[in-house]
Amino acid sequence: MKNMKIIIDEKQSIINNTEVRWYLSSQIVWIGKEKNYNEIEKLKNTSYGSFEWLWSDADTILFNRDGLDFIGAVIKLNEPIIVKKSKMDVKLIEEEYGDIKISDKSNFNCKLSDFTEYYVEEDILLSYSEKWSGTNPSIEIKMTSDFSVILQNNEMMGIVIYKASKHLLPDGIHQIGEVEDIKSDLRIRLGCFFELLEKMEDDLTQHEELELKNAFMEIYEQVLPYDAPSYIGLRDTILNVVDYM
Fold first, then answer.
1. pLDDT for 1
2. Fewest 10 Å CB contacts: which of 43, 48, 225, 229?
C-alpha cells in the first residue's frame, strides 16, 4: 500500500490534551475520543487511514472522510523502550502549531513505532519510523500542548509526547486529569523500570532473576504511597511483569 502525503493545517486540532493516553501495561499510545477497539473498528468504516490488520504491522492512524483531518491513532510501541539520559536533539526540527490532514481520499500504510525512546530528564516519549532521518530537516506539528507529530518530506515519521508520565494510565481509564499530583521523580522511576525490562532479555541465572524481581518491587514500593492514575499504571504493570517472570 502506498505512502500518504500529509498537509499541515493551521487550524486547531480536534484532539484534546486529555485524550493523549499511554497505557504502560500494553505499551500502546491511544490518541482520540474512542475508548476501546470496538469503537475504533466502527470508526475505521467511516475513515481513511493506516490500519492494523492481522497480516499487517502498520499502526492505526485515522482521518475523517469529510475534511480528511486527523482524528485519532492507536500505536503499539516497539519494545524494549530505550532510556535516554541526554536531552532530545531538536536542532534540525522546525516547530509549528496546528493540525494535519491527508492529501488524498484513500487508505495507506504507515508505521511510527519501529523505535521508541524515553528521555528521562525531559519526561519525553518519542516513537518513530525506521525511515526517519535525524540528519535531515523535519517539522514537528504541535497538535496539543503535550502531543506532536513529526513530518519529513511531507510524510508522518513519528510522534512525541511531552510530560509523558502525566499521560501514563492504567487499563480502563480513558482520559487523563487536567491536574494530577505527579512528582518529578516519577520519570526517574519510569527510566529505571524500562532499564530493568531490558535486562529481562538476558539469559539470567536463578539468583539474577530473583535480584531483578526485587529491583522491580523496590520501584513498586517507591510509588505505592501515591494514588494518581500514572502511579497506579506503573504499579499494575510492575505486578504483571513480576507475575510473568
1. 52
2. 225
Cβ atoms < 10 Å from Cβ of 215? 15
Grid cell for residue 235: 504499579
3 contacts 103 by C-beta, under 8 angstroms: no
Cell readout for 213 is 524481581
Three-state secondary-structure class, residue 101 = strand
The total of structural domains in the chain comes to 2
In whole angstroms, give the CA distance from residue 221 to residue 203.
26
CA atoms of 46 and 43, how far apart (whole Å): 5
Ramachandran angles phi, psi of 80, nearest 5°? -75, 150
Do 27 and 86 lie in a common domain? yes
Q: Which domain holds residue 159?
A: 6-167
Mark which of 143, 167, 191 sits at the end of a domain. Answer: 167
Spatial CA neighbour of 124 closest among 75, 78, 161, 84: 161
Summarize pLDDT for 84-133 with one digit per residue, the tens.
999 988 777 899 999 999 999 998 889 999 999 999 999 999 999 999 99
Greatest extent of the chain over all pairs of C-alpha atoms, in Å: 59
Q: With beta carbons less than 8 A apart as the criterion, state whether 155 and 132 touch.
A: no
